[in-house]
Design a protein that fits this description.
- It contains nine helices and 17 strands.
- With 353 residues, the chain is an alpha/beta fold.
- The strands form three sheets. It has a six-stranded antiparallel barrel with strand order 12-15-14-13-16-17. The protein has a five-stranded parallel sheet with strand order 3-2-1-4-7, sandwiched between helices.
Length: 353
């Protein structure tokens, strides 16, 4: 097949490229340049240059042509501005989910048009097809690295054009194969940052765009002022780190955006706080229609944690969710991804708790 392969300069996409090369496909590698140098210069060196050098080294070793595509404007318009607006409204955005839907498999697919049979990437996910020929997004063997949560907002049209060549492997296997093939990225550490900041701190990004504004840290139960903070947008529901008060542990339990108040509590896990019910809006169903089942599994964030949940469909795009157990970090603005066994059905945005 003629395949466009997204490379990032990391070990996962490098191995994906190697596996496809060995299978004999006609490949062109693409590096997406989404960094806004002027915007992010205040944060220090932009790591995209190092990433690109690694991508170039891999492509040179495998004799695959590499093209650099600038999607900086699209990235700012569709992902970065959304992230800032969500944080300013007190919500907890997840730009990685939007980046996959809007940029990697949105604007980039539009850029390619139909010149390629498939688009491949180094995501930890697997695609299967049901009896009707529809693409299904499936979890991988590596529960910790599984990235179906980040891919859950893709449409059927997008998913049907994709390949995930390392989706059958776990991280240890990927590392071992990279060593075996002596790929230039074999010893590179995994990126821990969100998609558009990479190694940089999200708080520094928010500080640059939203500034700082002193407000009160208020104990929810007593309404007593326990300390100060520098802006509600730096905090998310369920957060424990960064509160910096004695006598804890303290948890963020609510925010008053109008008054710039962050409510905290030491009784976050007390029995009367159920933390097992929330509403989801703007649902995306990968199959094109909502599932018939009312008992599903749900992920509230990237990672291995799956909850059994009861789903009440208010309409196709609005759900009420009752978890079988409590979760300490149900935060408006985050995505909830739904599963039937190993199949990711889609996701929606948590509206209220």
């Amino acid at each position: 097949m003629k395949i466009a392969v997204l490379v990032s300069g990391g070990v996962d996409s490098s191995l994906a490229l190697k596996l496809l090369k060995d299978q004999g496909h006609d490949l062109t590698a693409y590096y997406l340049k989404i960094w806004l140098e002027d915007e992010l210069a205040y944060l220090g060196d932009c790591p995209w240059q190092t990433d690109l050098e690694y991508a170039q080294a891999v492509c040179q070793q495998l004799d695959v042509p590499l093209k650099v595509v600038s999607l900086q404007k699209e990235y700012w318009d569709r992902v970065v501005s959304y992230t800032i607006a969500q944080a300013k409204s007190g919500k907890t955005p997840n730009p990685d989910v939007l980046c996959n839907q809007q940029i990697k498999f949105g604007a980039f697919l539009d850029y390619l048009d139909t010149n390629y049979d498939k688009i491949a990437s180094g995501h930890y996910a697997h695609i299967s097809y049901d009896s009707a020929g529809k693409a299904q997004l499936c979890m991988t063997p590596d529960q910790v690295k599984d990235q179906t949560y980040f891919l859950s907002f893709l449409s059927q049209e997008q998913l049907s054009r994709l390949l995930f060549p390392i989706g059958h492997l776990d991280k240890a296997q990927v590392r071992a194969l990279a060593q075996e093939y002596n790929l230039p990225t074999k010893d590179r550490k995994d990126s821990q940052g969100i998609c558009f900041l990479g190694k940089l701190k999200f708080d520094e990004f928010l500080k640059y765009h939203l500034g700082q504004k002193e407000g009160n840290l208020v104990e929810l139960e007593t309404n007593m002022v326990m300390g100060k903070h520098k802006g509600f947008w730096f905090y998310t529901i369920g957060q424990r780190k960064g509160i910096r008060l004695g006598g804890g542990p303290w948890y963020v339990v609510d925010k008053d955006c109008k008054e710039n108040i962050v409510y905290i509590s030491r009784n976050y896990y007390s029995a009367e706080k159920s933390r097992d019910f929330f509403k989801v809006v703007d649902c995306n169903w990968i199959a094109g229609k909502r599932p018939e089942k009312t008992e599903l599994s749900v992920k509230l964030r990237h990672g291995a944690q799956l909850y059994t949940c009861a789903v009440s469909y208010l309409d196709n795009n609005v759900l009420e969710i009752k978890l079988a157990e409590r979760d300490q970090g149900i935060a408006p603005g985050q995505f909830a991804a739904f599963y039937d066994g190993k199949v990711c059905l889609g996701s929606g945005i948590i509206q209220q708790v």
